[in-house]
Fold these 2 entries.
Entry 1:
Amino acid sequence: MNNGSVIELENVSKDYRRGSETVHALRDVSLAVTPGEYVAVVGHSGSGKTTLMNIMGCLDRPSRGRVILDGQEVHEKTEAGLTRLRRSAIGFVFQQFFLIPTLSVLENVSLPSLFVGKPSNGRAGELLEMVGLGNRLHHLPNQLSGGEMQRVAIARSLINAPPILLADEPTGNLDSRNADMIMKIFEQLNQEGVTVVVVTHNQDIVKRCRRKVHIEDGRIET
Ligand SMILES: Nc1ncnc2c1ncn2[C@@H]1O[C@H](COP(=O)(O)OP(=O)(O)OP(=O)(O)O)[C@@H](O)[C@H]1O
Ligand SMILES: [Mg+2]
């Protein structure tokens, strides 16, 4: 085992069951991410990228295999313990954003800071400014464009200054100028020591990442 890892997956498989049907979304995947790495995860639609991110981020548990986050065995933790670990360690940008429709942009971004007991509207406003949404603080999510929602989700992922950032297609809805801006923000964070794992089809991002993980049909291709 590599003790220098911030996230480690050992022989991880994930099956989804739908009635009598089983989807083998991940098949015996082993992967170790070291602190300060910037990893791009690439692969076709349906290859298992979101499943991998959900397991790395401890939003979901594997069917088989081990996950070690920040030196801690995930399967030994209770749901509450895992939630605490996740909140302090990980910022997550979801592929479908998952913004809360009844909360304003500013409230959506500050929400995770309430969960850790450090409410910060000030930082939320700064992050929104940083992603170019300083003029949208009091809009509701359904009053935003897709790219704006994506940038709110990115701002929210950073509110608790997580040491690990997991981003699932963070530039999928952005034009090249905004994608470039997000890429620069992620690179800056990485230079400051944040470990970044990003699922992306954006070739500019892939080219600039030091490490590329290619998933095909639930397996890591080497
Ligand atoms: N909750 C679920 N129940 C059943 N099958 C699922 C579930 N989630 C994902 N799958 C299946 O698992 C496989 C991997 O899905 P996943 O979402 O990880 O792919 P992906 O690589 O993220 O694709 P995309 O690029 O389209 O986002 C797919 O075949 C998908 O249909
Ligand atoms: Mg996906």
Entry 2:
Amino acid sequence: MADWFGVAPEAEFGPGSRTTIDVDGVPVLVLNVDGEIYAVEDFCTHDSLPLHDGSVEDGEIVCPFHGARFCLKTGKNTAPPAFGDLPTMPVKIENGIIFVRDARWD
Ligand code: FES
């Protein structure tokens, strides 16, 4: 099982916070949306462009390039022009630190 990667102290990552970290060579976007922490690959499945500047609406991230939408909880693609789902990463908080794990090889 892959290692957990530290993201930030929970106390410094309040609602509205977002960052992109490198997880085994994959950029992972971590967001706090209304107190819930989500982690998704920072690549839109349409044209492999970064999602980190996208807006968040109704629990979905909107690609800033062509408007594809993805559920942050499940990664499911909910609007074209992308059709592939977005890989999500498990999140945990331990001793006040937010961690994500690369689950691609589970
Ligand atoms: S790169 Fe995201 S919708 Fe085109």
